[in-house]
Amino acid sequence: MAEKTYLQAISDGLRQEMRRDQRVFVLGEDVGVYGGAFKVTQGFQEEFGANRVLDMPLSETAIVGGATGAALMGLRPIAEMQFADFVSCAWDHLVTVAAKQRYRAGTPIPIVLRLPSGGGFSGGPFHSQNPESSFAHIPGLKIVCPSTPEDAKGLLATAVEDPNPVLYFEHKHLYRRIKGEVPDDRYTTPFGKARVHRDGEDVTLITWGAMVYTADEAATRLADEGVSVEILDLRTLIPWDREAVLESVARCSKALVLHEDTKTGGFGAEIAATIAEEAFEQLDAPVRRVAAPDAPVPFAPTLEKAFIPQVDDVAAALRDLAAY
Amino acid sequence: MAVREAEPVETLQEVREAGLDREDLLGMYRNMLITRGIEERGHILYKQGKIPGSFYTGRGNEASAVGVATAMGPNDVGTPLQRDMGVHVTRGIEPWRVFAQYMGRVDGPMSGRDGNVHMGDSRLGLYAMVSHLPAMLPVAVGMGLAFTIREEKRVAIAWCGEGASARGDAHEGMNLAGVRRLPVVFLIDNNQWAYSTPAHLEYAVDHLADRAAAYGFDGVVVDGTDVLAVYREAKLAIEKAREGGGPTLIESVTLRMEGHAVHDDAFYVPKELFEEWAQRDPIERFRGWLRDNASLTEDEEDEIRDGVKRILNEAIQRAEESPLPDPATLLDGVFATPEELETPHHK
Question: How far, in Å, are A38, A119, A261, B38 from residue A128 at the CA level?
Answer without folding.
Answer: 14, 4, 10, 52
